[in-house]
Amino acid sequence: MLSKRGGSVAHKKLTFVAVHDAPDQVESFSRITFSEVVLWAPFHFSWAAFRLFFWLVIINGICITLSYHRNLSHRSFDLPKWLEYLFAYGGVLAFQCGGYENVSDLLRQPFYRFLQRSFGLHQIAFGLLLYFCGGMPFLAWGLGVATVVRSHTTFLVNSVCHIWGTRAWNTPDFSKNNWWVAIITFGEGWHNNHHAFEFSARHGLEWWQLDVTWYLIRFLKAIGLATNVKLPTEAQKKRMARN
């Protein structure tokens, strides 16, 4: 950068400083760490560790789709605070936590401020717990492989579901419904449905469109725990239909 001082030209050095919050630092570190842990997994296989991996992928995956996406992001339904926080914490243990600028409304609540500030500590504690319970097999499969699989299934929604699939609704984007992505993401693969009705707690709008997250929401509603459940009306469907 140049500036003039009394007819002379002075050179000023520019320094750029990148500021990262806790989730950013944990994510950057985890990109390397998880890759290394996954490489160890074949050498530390056990059926107990595989069962742990299987159930963690399901439980934490449901927490991401039900809590992070449909409840907290789109306010598709309401939960009692204790249950909302429980599902949200399951999302934290899936190593997913965005920047605070995306959720400024949530940060008005002390619980979410606490999670934001202490995000990395929960991952460390979870990793230590897995190691103490089952050694390297539990750490490699329950933390490394499970986290990588969950991350990639999440990424598939925003990649595959904008390239391959079918479209039932007139949305100003390339979103598509993809049945096999819907299976492995508990209903998130009905992406064109979601883009058409972002407020909807149900993504699989047809009876044959598998949506495990919606089935759980419907169960919570039936027992009185999920309220204000939002769904598209027939008039809204007609307005958005392609035919």
From TrEMBL:
Pathway: Lipid metabolism; polyunsaturated fatty acid biosynthesis. Residues 125-215 form the Fatty acid desaturase domain. GO terms for cellular component: endoplasmic reticulum membrane. Keywords: Fatty acid metabolism, Iron, Lipid metabolism, Membrane, Oxidoreductase, Transmembrane, Transmembrane helix. The chain crosses the membrane at residues 52-70, 82-103, 124-149. Its main location: membrane. GO terms for biological process: unsaturated fatty acid biosynthetic process; very long-chain fatty acid biosynthetic process. It is found in: Membrane. One of its GO terms (molecular function) is oxidoreductase activity, acting on paired donors, with oxidation of a pair of donors resulting in the reduction of molecular oxygen to two molecules of water. Pfam families: FA_desaturase. InterPro entries: Acyl-CoA_DS, FA_desaturase_dom. It is a multi-pass membrane protein. Belongs to the fatty acid desaturase type 1 family. This is Fatty acid desaturase domain-containing protein.
